[in-house]
Amino acid sequence: MKELHLLPIGNVPPDLLGWLQRQLCELFRVPCTLLQPALDPRVAYHPEREQYHSSELIARMQPYVSDQTWKLLGVTTEDLYIPILTFVFGEAQIGGKLAIVSTHRLRQEFYGLPEDKQLLAQRLLTESVHELGHTLQLTHCDDYNCVMAASHAVEWIDIKQPTFCSDCASRIV
Ligand SMILES: [Zn+2]
Ligand SMILES: [Zn+2]
């Protein structure tokens, strides 16, 4: 059976990764493996923006894909961007195998609020399922409770459930 592979990109808290691994395994009903060693994110660092280009990181993830790979999800704590946007929470290959998510702007501290580990974990799960949904060829959904609803701000992630609405679930290929 093909597996969901998680790849840390830089230093990611192991307890958070382990928790995400268990949740995704249960949700997608596939074996889920944590790949090591971590990918070094510095190759995609752009000093003029002080951010990491997510598409470049996705390109660097390609060699980690094997015959066993169902999907490969990169997880990083670094701040991601694509050139046309200020930032991205994550990026995915539509209908492909690769996706990446960042915890950077999912942390309450980023918004000047006290740390909330549980909220961070929940947001990371929702964002991970969202990006994996794109790899399953899903586009954005109008149902704001659905994990495939677009989120341009962190508050929108908090409205969503980390699950697909029945319409999206039926369209998964
Ligand atoms: Zn999206
Ligand atoms: Zn939906």
From TrEMBL:
GO molecular function, one term: zinc ion binding
Listed cofactors: Zn(2+)
The keyword Ligase is annotated on this UniProt entry: no
Biological processes, Gene Ontology terms: proteolysis
Keyword presence, Isomerase: no
Record InterPro entries: MetalloPept_cat_dom_sf, Pept_M54_archaemetzincn, Pept_M54_archaemetzncn_arc/bac
Keyword annotations: Hydrolase, Metal-binding, Metalloprotease, Protease, Zinc
Superkingdom in the source lineage: Bacteria
Pfam families, sorted: Peptidase_M54
Protein name per the record: Peptidase, zinc-dependent
Lineage: Bacteria, Pseudomonadati, Acidobacteriota, Terriglobia, Terriglobales
